[in-house]
Amino acid sequence: MKLKIENGKLKMGNLFLRVIRILSLAFCLSSLNLNAQDVNPREVVDLLNRILCQSPTSNSQLPITFELCNFATLRPCDSAPKDIFIITSKDDKPCVRGNSILAITTGINWYLNHYAHINISWSQLKIDDIENYEFPIPEKEELHVCDADYRYYLNYCTFSYSMSVWTWERWEQEIDWMALHGINMPLQIVGLDVVWMRLLTEHYGYTKDEANEFIAGPCFQAWWGMNNLEGWGGKNPDWWYKRQASLAKKICNRMRELGMQPVLPGFSGMVPSDFTDKTDISSNSQGLWCGFKRPHILNPNTEDFKIMAERYYKILEEVMGTSTYYSMDPFHEGANTDGIDVPAAYKAIADAMYEANDDIDEKWVIQYWQWNADQYHVLDYVKKGDLIILDLFSTAHTHFQEYKGHDAVYCMLPNFGGRSGFMGRFNGMIEGYFENKKMHLNIKGVGATPESIGSVPVLYDILFELPWHETKPDAKEWMRNYTISRYGVESTLAQGAWELLRNSALNCETALQGPHEAVTCARPSLNVDRVSSWGGTEIFYDAKDVAEAARKLLEADLEGENYYYDLVDVWRQAMTDMAYYLLKEISSLYQMPELVEGMTSNNLISTDSITGGISDSLTFIKKRDEFLKLINDLDRLLNTNKHFMLGTWTEMARAIADEVEGTTESDRDWLELNNARTLITTWGDEVNANQGGLRDYSYRQWGGMMKDFYLPRWQYFFNNNMASPPEGWFEMERKWALDKSLRYSDKPQGNTKDVIRSVIEKSL
To answer: What is the pTM of this model?
Structure first.
């Protein structure tokens, strides 16, 4: 054992520290009170039956046993009890013991990943061939204590970009996924439209039609709920509100059954822009957001605000129940605050929340986004312990030092708009979480705040595992084990692929907002530098590493849903990177003087249309054709997997109407065209799309969409001497979004490996 002298102080060597930790752990294990309160918690039985596709049964018939235990205080110095799980054995089966439902479900997920090599993911939300898996008995007990009081999940935007077309079946799977990842405070806004329909019609004299002018359609309710717009994507039929009321109760009840406290939408004063005209109650305009007229706001420092808040919270309780946590983001993204005493307004908003439920110790959950935490002195007006600040983009930049000791959550925001792409900050997130925890004692949790989910699941697996690690895990070793869990087998090739990805696309060290963008999905130009208004196309890693990872993953020749998902995703990214460099070549060729002089025709289909600079013209045409073929090949690849198909999205949207009796084909078209397709293309009207900058903000590299939406734009561009349509791109885009003659299948076509081998691999 070595002792070190540093800065005049005696330091213990690593070996000694390890010995101390081992002895401490042994003492803790011996001091646990393992008297089981419930050896068969029904909520956990039901969850396991759902993910393992078992018929309803008892714990004893499942491959894993579990117990809800009353542990003795594990760490006496802690001010509050922590979630704890132990992986052990009982009756010749693996057993997970936990001191809460969520501790048990997290422990089960840990066991599935690290022992049984089963990775429950968006690409594999259930296991329907359980007989092909082994469930080994742990050789020794393994104990984990969670150091995060708050494990937050979701973003208002997620409810539109990902969840707006979900059925209850899909919601049920997601809540199970939350439980397995230990999430204890998910945002929940489904049913907010029901609350507002009732509030306006029951208390403020609005008819249903008038209220519908204010409430947004299904795919745009996130921004309506954040006070950014009103009415867009509506008018919602009566059946929609009945459906949402039922769905909201199911979601909230299931979350609570599994030990979660949903974060519910609080009241910050939003009212329709015609509210004053309708009621004679004074309200303030909040200006415009991306070309949309914002809702107005009641001055929180008035009696009218207090009355409306009281009514709002009463209806909210009837629709969703109550909670410890309420989400409010007043004056979001540049709202007008003229004439409002903002510091006093924050206090009034908080007081209204407290008064709504006297018997609950409520906490205000607020986002740090385009907001200086001390700008309006909100931190001085809300007492410590009553405010939880989501540091929304912690993996890119942090602001914990600005929060004056208020509780904060270290958050990951890996995706904006649902835009396709394979990227992350894997290494930096591991380092950042543990380093910031050391520096800032006010960090009390970890959170994922994506604008959209369903992509790069490895980031979520590591993020929600971090609080259960006593020390920082080794990134390389964790990824190696993840690969085994992901595919159920050990593959040197697959591990090599993920090691390349970990140090390239998954190692972004800038504040880039999501993945670099796919030039194939951009409005055509020879100098594409972005697809969306706030994005960029420049690749931040060596594209050869991703291409090599794609080759290795194909060569691994594995099976399973997770493998095929990753195979498509990584190859999609490799091809997207190739398109980026192809377009650069095309652009450089066009800039050559001899070629420019020869561009006398409006049609570049053949060399006959070009005179002069013939050798370069041939190269230009060859590269152009490669680029267009690549878009077609991408479409073929993406259509081999349901997770990368436009039809999966649009058919889910149409299926919402199928849940309710009496709906019509017009209802299905409204859900698909005015909502699901519009969101991922034009987003809004022409002003919102162009001047407001929202077009292609939610672009998707999906099968069907590559061939029918993005490819025609590029074909028009190249066939018309690199010009845009006379009427502009918007009209072409809107025509596709609203074309009811187009239907897209949600049934995959072809085998992923065959498509790659026959068409794509040669190109790379």
So the answer is: 0.92
